[in-house]
Automatic annotation (TrEMBL):
Residues covered by region (Disordered): 59-78
One record GO biological process: mitochondrial respiratory chain complex I assembly
Keyword Methyltransferase in record: yes
Compartment(s) where it occurs, according to its Swiss-Prot or TrEMBL record: Mitochondrion
Name of the molecule in the record: Arginine-hydroxylase NDUFAF5, mitochondrial
Residue stretches of biased makeup (Low complexity): 59-77
Keyword annotations of the record: Methyltransferase, Mitochondrion, Oxidoreductase, Transferase, Transit peptide
Any one GO CC term of the record: mitochondrion
InterPro entries to which the protein is assigned, alphabetical: Malonyl-ACP_OMT, Methyltransf_11, SAM-dependent_MTases_sf
Sequence similarity: Belongs to the methyltransferase superfamily.
């Protein structure tokens, strides 16, 4: 009974609003996990209409950009169709906002970084927007129009209200169906850790940005849910003599700046933060991860956990990480990134050797000033 109850939630978090008119859906070229013919891309959605049609890439180009996943997981570790189903399921729950606390918090922190830039953005793009966790914190004085892109149509249909005019676009974050040099700002919160090709996703974001446009994003980091990962591994080693991955791979912070630089971004800023949430126990952690749409979608995931294994994992979790009040912590590591697309007006570092004062001279001046004070 316990095994049946947790089978749907056994996968843990990975390492990876509509207004009248129309928009674009680009979910094409994806082969079914069991094989079969690839499906042609379908285009639909909602938007503010009018001249916004020039934003979209023709459907033929979108189809050419999409490529079928590799079921072996060698090149495509994540089952994107399964991730779409998970997020759609979560968005249709009676109280979808019940498990949105983490996404709302990080979305607010991304919005704060947008406010730190003293300019207005006529047109912005939210990649992996979900139910609009960034948009609800933005103002129309900062962002005049916003396009929200997500792989799950139910999340977009149930998006939270915002004062900014929005367009909802159902599309894969890895294959953005927009023309080059379109957006003044691109934001993303807790979505890019599920893409199969992160370098390509960064290149797509860079391509759709206008010169002097900025990308501000957040994604889960390598220490996310280390308590859950260790508890499940120890329980499986004890009960089954080996373990399978239940927490998907994450990007290391040391690689993030390099990936952004390779994609063409400059003036990079990368920082990290941790959010710790306390839960009654392991089962509640898994339940909320499922409610977030963050269940594991790796191709090599284990389909279920045995009853004895999950009970052992819950006991190990409590013993190793439990708080004095009986709750258990779950740690979420967040990487925040800011990158700019090059423009001639941007400040650039001076050429090497062009300085007129040496650091040694500055040190002498500091010494003289300190002696005068004495």
């Amino acid at each position: 009974m316990v095994a049946a109850a947790v089978a749907g939630a056994a996968g843990a978090l990975g390492g990876a609003a509509a207004v009248g008119g129309w928009a674009v859906r680009a979910l094409g070229g994806a082969a079914a996990p069991g094989g079969g013919a690839a499906r042609a891309p379908r285009l639909w959605g909602w938007g503010w209409g009018g001249s916004s049609r020039r934003l979209w890439v023709p459907s033929g180009q979108a189809a050419a950009a999409a490529s079928p996943p590799d079921p072996s997981g060698a090149l495509s570790p994540f089952d994107r169709q399964l991730k779409r189903k998970q997020k759609n399921w979560a968005a249709l729950q009676p109280e979808p906002a019940k498990c949105d606390y983490l996404r709302e918090e990080v979305g607010g922190r991304v919005a704060d970084r947008v406010f730190d830039i003293t300019r207005a953005f006529p047109l912005a793009l939210d990649v992996g927007s979900g139910r609009g966790y960034i948009a609800q914190h933005l103002t129309k004085e900062t962002v005049e129009k916003l396009i929200q892109v997500d792989i799950a149509e139910n999340a977009l249909k149930n998006a939270m209200e915002t004062e900014i005019p929005t367009v909802s676009v159902v599309a894969d974050e890895e294959f953005l169906p927009f023309k080059e040099d379109t957006f003044d700002l691109v934001v993303s919160s807790l979505s890019l850790h599920w893409v199969n090709d992160l370098p390509r996703a960064f290149r797509e974001i860079h391509q759709v940005l206008k010169p002097d446009g900025v990308f501000i994003g957040a994604m889960f980091g390598g220490d996310t849910l280390y308590e859950l990962r260790c508890s499940l591994q120890l329980a499986e080693l004890e009960r089954e003599g080996g373990f399978s991955p239940h927490v998907s791979p994450f990007t290391a912070v040391s690689d993030l700046g390099h990936l952004l630089s390779r994609a063409g971004f400059n003036t990079l800023t990368v920082d990290t933060d941790e959010i710790q949430v306390n839960y009654p126990g392991l089962f509640e952690v898994m339940e909320d991860l499922q409610g977030m749409g963050e269940s594991n979608c790796s191709w090599n995931r284990k389909p279920l956990l045995h009853r004895e294994t999950i009970l052992a994992a819950a006991a190990i979790y409590q013993e190793m990480y439990g708080n004095s009040d009986g709750s258990v912590p779950a740690t979420f590591q967040i990487y925040y990134m800011i990158g700019w697309k090059f423009h001639e007006s941007q400040a650039r570092p001076a050429q090497r050797g062009s300085a007129t004062v040496s650091l040694g001279d500055l040190a002498k001046i500091n010494g003289l000033l300190s002696r005068r004070k004495k």
